[in-house]
Design a protein that fits this description.
105 residues, alpha+beta, Alpha-Beta Plaits, 4-stranded antiparallel sheet, two-stranded antiparallel ribbon, 2 helices, 18% helix
Length: 105
C-alpha cells in the first residue's frame, strides 16, 4: 500500500467526496481526515492509503494542482519512515530564551 497526502480540498468535503475524487484513479483502502481536537472540524487535509504505486502515480498526475473553487488541490506521496524511532536523532534546541511567567494578581 502507498500513503498519500491530500490537502487543499474545500473544508465542507466529506470522506466520501474525497474518496470519490481519488477513486477513478486508484483503489482507496483507508482514509483519515485530520480534524481539530476541540471543534472536531476538518483542518483541510487527509491521508489516504491506496492499493498500489501505479494508482498513486495516476492520482497524483491527474489531481495535483487542480483548482477547486479558490483552493488548489495538493496530492503527493508520504515518505515511509524507515528504522526504529530510537535510530532517529533528537533535535535539541539550546539557548532559547524562556518565556516569562505571568503572575495572576
Amino acid at each position: 500500500m502507498v500513503k498519500l497526502f491530500v490537502g487543499g480540498y474545500p473544508p465542507e468535503f466529506t470522506e466520501l467526496e474525497i474518496v470519490q475524487l481519488v477513486g477513478p484513479h486508484t483503489t482507496v483502502e483507508t482514509i483519515k481526515v485530520v480534524r481539530d481536537k476541540i471543534s472536531k472540524k476538518p483542518k483541510g487535509y487527509a491521508f489516504l492509503e491506496v492499493a498500489d504505486n501505479a494508482g498513486a502515480e495516476r492520482a497524483i498526475d491527474a489531481l495535483d494542482g487542480l483548482a477547486m473553487g479558490d483552493r488548489i488541490l495538493k496530492i503527493n506521496k508520504v515518505a515511509e519512515e524507515t528504522g526504529k524511532t530510537s535510530d532517529k536523532q533528537a533535535v535539541v534546541i539550546k539557548d532559547r530564551p524562556k518565556r516569562p511567567r505571568r503572575t495572576i494578581q
